[in-house]
Amino acid sequence: MKHCLFCQIARRERPGRIVFEDDSVVAFEDLNPQAPVHILIIPKKHLAGLDEAAAEDEALLGHVQRVAAQLAADRSVSRSGYRTVLNVGPHAGQSVFHLHLHLIGGRPMRWPPG
Ligand code: 5GP
Ligand code: ZN
């Protein structure tokens, strides 16, 4: 999508610290990290959020999660643990409307989330 912030990062039209890319996803450092490891994994396909994902996107969503696990391993947080978070809508605080999975790790986290 032309004016989408995350589409623009994926297309390198806007700065972003990209840490991984393949045919279907891009991963980059969060601008305002909430933990020592805070990476956003996005599908290259523009989906505004999880509610827009269709049956044909199931493999893509699974791939996004598996890339998160691989990046967690790359950053050596697999053993200590990490969280993947996909915020949807106002109550969850979604602020960018291109589906993105947060990979957060490197410090202990509480549950339930705030
Ligand atoms: P949400 O609240 O929508 O789940 O998460 C949006 C995330 O995108 C936030 O963690 C925020 O820090 C991050 N973010 C917002 N704008 C930018 C940007 O221009 N570049 C990067 N790398 N991250 C951004
Ligand atoms: Zn987009």
Q: Looking at CATH, which topology would you report?
A: HIT family, subunit A
* Proportion of beta-strand residues: 15-25%
> Which sequence of SSEs, written as H and E, runs from N to C?
HEEEHEHE
Count of strand segments: 5
Gyration radius over CA: 14 Å
Taking pLDDT < 50 over at least 5 consecutive residues as the criterion, the unreliable ranges are none
For the sheet with most strands, the description reads: 5 strands, antiparallel
Number of helices: 3
Main sheet: strand order: 1-2-3-5-4
CATH superfamily name? HIT-like
Question: Alpha-carbon distance between the termini?
Answer: 31 Å
| Number of individual domains | 1
Q: Give the overall average pLDDT.
A: 98
Explain this structure:
- The protein is built from three helices and five strands; from the N terminus they run αβββαβαβ.
- By secondary structure, the protein is an alpha+beta fold.
- The protein has one domain (5-105): HIT family, subunit A, CATH 3.30.428.
- Strands 1-2-3-5-4 form a five-stranded antiparallel β-sheet.
- Strand 1 (18-21) and strand 2 form a beta hairpin.
- The model has no long low-confidence stretch (mean pLDDT 98).
- Bound molecules: guanosine-5'-monophosphate (5GP) and zinc ion.
- Guanosine-5'-monophosphate (5GP) binds at residues 5, 16, 28-32, 40, 87, 93-96.
